[in-house]
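Reminder to self: tokens first, then the designed residues, so the page reads top to bottom the way the pipeline ran.
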């Protein structure tokens, strides 16, 4: 009777673990979709501004999240199969994948945090130079597009203010056709509107550096929070997997 009770207890424990792990996998799979979406959204919608950054850390954190999201979704399906088939070898593979994703997301979170600290200094050192030296330069079309979008979207002109454009290689050249600032500095864009730098015409007092910094920092917060949050949730998944693995090992075949 004691043996029957122990076996029944083990079986009940295993069933509970199976359902806990299944529920975890379902939410984990949804979380994988969310992680992938955040990474893809950052790269697709906000990739224009990546060309204005000298460091590749911002895009690297987004790529890590996309990869982690894809692996999470595949792992979630594998976890469900391993749980209901009660295959210890599948559970081993599942646990290793969980551990790899955990490390990936921790790395993404740490990179986002480190870059968050360094971003202000990087922009102060490089943004003005990037805008003035690369704008309208051959082969730097992505920077030109990013600068125009930045100035229009954030209603700003230049890195610190509109006077930065006096140092621009393009503004100094005949190609500028007498413009003092790019047309994207204008409140209402018309051809050659950059010739007139009156406050009624351009975003004269507002530089782009603070606005871009705040924008990227907000996205780094999201990337870091998503990465670390999902990684913390995975700890429970790894614990459930270990418990189920041990309970299956104890059962007679």
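Designed residues (253 positions):
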């Amino acid at each position: 009777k004691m043996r029957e009770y122990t076996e029944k207890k083990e079986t009940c424990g295993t069933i509970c673990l199976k359902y806990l792990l299944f529920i975890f996998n379902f939410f984990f799979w949804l979380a994988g979709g969310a992680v992938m979406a955040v990474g893809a959204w950052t790269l697709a919608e906000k990739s224009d501004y990546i060309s204005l950054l000298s460091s590749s850390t911002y895009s690297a954190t987004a790529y890590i999240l996309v990869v982690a999201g894809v692996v999470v979704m595949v792992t979630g399906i594998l976890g469900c199969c391993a749980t209901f088939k009660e295959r210890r070898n599948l559970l081993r593979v599942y646990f290793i994948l969980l551990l790899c994703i955990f490390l990936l997301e921790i790395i993404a979170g740490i990179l986002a945090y480190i870059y968050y600290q360094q971003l202000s200094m990087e922009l102060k050192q490089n943004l003005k130079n990037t805008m003035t030296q690369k704008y309208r330069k051959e082969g730097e079309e992505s920077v030109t597009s990013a600068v125009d979008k930045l100035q229009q979207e954030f209603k700003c002109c230049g890195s610190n203010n509109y006077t930065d454009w006096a140092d621009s290689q393009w503004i100094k050249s005949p190609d500028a056709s007498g413009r003092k600032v790019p047309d994207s500095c204008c409140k209402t864009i018309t051809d050659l509107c950059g010739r007139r730098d009156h406050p009624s015409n351009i975003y004269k007092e507002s530089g782009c550096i603070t606005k871009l910094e705040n924008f990227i920092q907000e996205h780094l917060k999201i990337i870091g929070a998503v990465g670390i949050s999902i990684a913390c949730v995975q700890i429970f998944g790894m614990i459930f997997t270990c418990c189920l693995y041990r309970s299956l090992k104890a059962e007679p075949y």
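Residues 12-115+231-247 form one domain.
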